[in-house]
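**User:**
Make up any protein.

**Assistant:**
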Amino acid sequence: MSIIRIKEDGDFKYVEEGEGSPLLLIHGLFGALSNWRSVINHFSDRYKIFIPLMPVYEKPSFEVEPSVEGLKNFIRAFVNYKKIENPILIGNSLGGHVSLKYTLSFPNQVRGLVLTGSSGLYESGMGSEFPRYKSYPFIKERVEYTFYSPQTATKELVDEVFGIVNDNYKALRVLRFARSAQKENLSKEVSGIKTPTLLVWGLNDNITPPHVAHEFNTLMPESTLRFIDHCGHAAMMEQPDKFNRILSTFLDKISH
C-alpha cells in the first residue's frame, strides 16, 4: 500500500502525484486525502493528480467562510496558486457539491466533472448528526452506515471521526459546513452545466440514495450515470476496481 505524501506549500496542504493532464480530487465532509488512494495508484502514471486538504476541520491561514461557497473559493485559490489549467474535477459527497459550485462559477475552466455520492440535491443529514453524539458506539455505527460493507469502516477511520466530533472547535466547523450543504440546493442551477459529467453511484448509498443520482442525471444534459452494486456512499473506497474502470472509460472518452 503506497504512502500518501502530503505537501505543505503557501497556505495549502495537498497531495500532488503523477504527470499529465490534471485531475483535481475533492474529498467530503468527513473525508481525507487517503480516501483517494486507489485513484492515485491507478491514474498517476497518466494524469497529474492534485488533492487539496479542504479547511473543514481547521481554520486555514486565510479566511474561508464556513459554507459550500467558501470551500469553492478555497479550491479556486488553490487552483490559482498551483496554476492548474482546465482540470477534471472529481468530487465525493460534499466534495461533489463544491465541484458543482466550481463548475457553475467557472464553466470554461473545467474539462470534465465526476460526481460520486454528491450532495447538492439531497443528503440524509449525516453531517449535522455526527457532532451531536459523542459516544464511540454511535460514531462507529454511523461511519459503518456510510458503507455497504461495515468492514470498510476500519477502526482507524472510526477513530479519526470520533476524534473530530470530540473536538469542540472541529465539531462546530463540521456542523456549519453540513448546514450550508443542506440549505444550498442546486436543482435549479445544475441544468446549466454543459461540462461532460460522469455520475458514479453506489446502489446501496444511504446518504445520497440512488434516486439522487437519477435526479442529477435527469437535470444535467451532459451527464452519464453508472451504478455500482454492493456499494455505499464512497465508491472509490469500497469498490475501487469498479470505480477506476468506470472512471477510466470516461477519462478516455473526454480526452479524445
Summary: The radius of gyration is 17 Å. The chain has one domain: 7-122+185-254. Residues 203 and 229 are 5 Å apart (CA to CA). The chain has ten helices and eight strands.
